[in-house]
Amino acid sequence: IVTVGILTLAGIWNATAGLAGGLLTFGMSIVTLSFLITTPEAWVPNLGGDLPTPAYGFPYLSGVGRLVIKDIIMMAGGLTAAAECANRMLARKK
């Protein structure tokens, strides 16, 4: 994770490193967001009991799900950094 951050930061000076860092950040976020689909604990469970539990399952996120959902911001940042570095690389080739 530290290497990905350093690559993204290096994109200020080197567009190729920034593109690699941005794409790695985007990919890492996609993998983390896949936990929402593959991990049952990401959603509020039906606790059962004597009283009905009306707020469970999709779309109610548990603490684990809320921790994972923050990666949407990292995914957007990585995509933005990669696009900006790719734009600089294309402008340099003209």
TrEMBL record:
<protein>
    <submittedName>
        <fullName>Putative membrane protein</fullName>
    </submittedName>
</protein>
<dbReference type="GO" id="GO:1901530">
    <property type="term" value="P:response to hypochlorite"/>
</dbReference>
<feature type="transmembrane region" description="Helical">
    <location>
        <begin position="12"/>
        <end position="37"/>
    </location>
</feature>
<dbReference type="GO" id="GO:0005886">
    <property type="term" value="C:plasma membrane"/>
</dbReference>
<keyword id="KW-1133">Transmembrane helix</keyword>
<keyword id="KW-0472">Membrane</keyword>
<keyword id="KW-0812">Transmembrane</keyword>
<dbReference type="Pfam" id="PF04224">
    <property type="entry name" value="DUF417"/>
</dbReference>
<dbReference type="InterPro" id="IPR007339">
    <property type="entry name" value="RclC-like"/>
</dbReference>
